[in-house]
C-alpha cells in the first residue's frame, strides 16, 4: 500500500489488529520529533493528520481540530500533560541515542537510559503532549 497516496476510506478499511491514534496539538512538530528521535517515516503529513510508520507498524496522529465531534475531545485536559499514563514502547530504537537527542525536538528525558531487570535497556522520553515514548533494546 502506498501510504502517501492512499485514500482515507481505503486506509481505514485496511487497518487490522490493534491501532494507535494519538491526538496532538501540533502534528507537524510531532512528525519532526518522531522522525528525528526514532527514524519514523511520515506519510500525508499535514497540520491535521499524518500516518507514521515504525518498522512494519503504522499509526496515526490527528490534530485537535479533527476531533470536533469526537467524544474524547471534551475529556482532554486544558493543561499538559495530556497523555499521562500512556507508554509507547519502541523495541528497535537505541535509548542512549534517543535520549541524547531528545531536547533538540522538545522531548524531556523522564528517565535516562537504564538497564532494567526485564532484559531491556530503556529510557522514558516525554513528548510535549505528555505521551511517554520508551526506546528500548535488549541487554
Condensed summary:
The protein has about 140 residues and is α/β, with parallel strands linked by helices.
Keyword list:
single chain; 139 residues; 2,3-Dihydroxybiphenyl 1,2-Dioxygenase, domain 1; 4-stranded mixed sheet; globular
List the helices and strands and how they pair.
Layout: H1 8-14, E1 21-24, H2 27-38, E2 41-43, E3 49-54, E4 57-63, E5 87-90, H3 95-101, E6 108-115, E7 120-126, E8 132-138
Parallel strand pairs: 1-4, 5-8
Antiparallel strand pairs: 2-3, 3-4, 6-7, 7-8
Task: Walk me through what this model shows.
It is a single chain. With 139 residues, the chain is α/β, with parallel strands linked by helices. The chain is globular. The longest helix is centred in the first third of the chain and has 12 residues, at 27-38. The protein has helices at 8-14, 27-38, 95-101, and strands at residues 21-24, 41-43, 49-54, 57-63, 87-90, 108-115, 120-126, 132-138. The relative contact order is 0.18. The chain has a single domain, classed as 2,3-Dihydroxybiphenyl 1,2-Dioxygenase, domain 1, CATH 3.10.180. The strands form 2 sheets. Strands 1-4-3-2 form a 4-stranded mixed beta sheet, with helices on one face. Strands 5-8-7-6 form a 4-stranded mixed beta sheet. It contains 3 helices and 8 strands.
